[in-house]
Amino acid sequence: MKANAIFHAPKFSNRAFFVVFLIVFIAQIVDAIIGTLADILWEFTISFWGVALFFGISTIYAFGQYFILGMVKAKNRERN
Prior knowledge:
Blueprint: H1 14-36, H2 42-45, H3 48-79
């Protein structure tokens, strides 16, 4: 293993970017639907499953943003 290989970001394919983007987009749609229906579904939003869904969507956002930013960083390094 070369010493400078540690500092190079791995290459990401367009398919991986699309899959991550699609997962984050679906999570955003679910979040928007629940946000608009929060007054009607107030019992669900304060239940265990509502809170679990909130943490699940938050986790998807966090990992998705981290992964997408890593891919953008790798693409920028490829161009330089």
